[in-house]
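Field guide to reading this record: the first block holds the primary sequence, the second block holds the structure written as discrete tokens, and the final block holds curator observations. Each block starts with its own label. This record concerns Two-component system OmpR family response regulator, catalogued under organism Rhodovulum marinum.

BLOCK 1 — SEQUENCE
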Amino acid sequence: MEKLKGPTPRMSQGDPQILIVDDARDIREPLGQYLRKQGLRTQLAANAGEARRVLEDGTPALVVLDIMMPGEDGLSLCRWLVARGGPPVILLTAMADETDRIVGLELGADDYVVKPFNPRELLARIRAVLRRVPEPATLIASGIRRFGPWHHDPDLQQVQHDDGRTVSLTSGESRLLGILLDHPHTVLSRDRLLDLTAGRDAKAYDRAIDNTVSRLRRKVEADPKAPRLIVTEWGGGYRLAVDVEDT
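BLOCK 2 — STRUCTURE
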């Protein structure tokens, strides 16, 4: 497993929850730590029985599932998940188990990764699967809200400064600002912001978030090169660094 570097980003309840089911502790725990470093919430289960108990309390966004486990194997649990309309599944499979991989895909698994694997590859596959899964539309507050010296009016797509200046926003800028206002003091990764603002549009791309943030900063920051409202969390994403008030 790749060595982890840097602080773990703050996560919110809006971040995707990943359930990792693997009887090998030396895979399960480092993988959970790695995914948390990438802004995902994780739950761990050592076998199918533990996984079922976790699933009774809620539905994760995705399950990473080892095929070869003592007792009930991963294929059986995958079949059960698919039959009940559960979350998408990525199988972890040994190099030689081509038949199991085929059976897993036929059962309804969304993807598979062959052991030993690079955690970055698994992360890329997790994000790819999550992008394919429809997500309920995000509801953004429609009222006027204050942040720092500004008031955001999503209906008029504009912000007004305490000194009376009014600045128009594009629909994309207003929507992104609304998402940030929904999650003050919370680090939102570029992937998460892309999902919330673009609605999983296949044509959208990560750089679009950076471009929109840059335009927003030019409109609301006193010094866009040293932002104090919308700050960058290196390796994490962006964070609204001020309190939000309904007006």
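BLOCK 3 — OBSERVATIONS
DSSP finds eight helices and twelve strands in the chain.
The first helix runs from residue 25 to 37.
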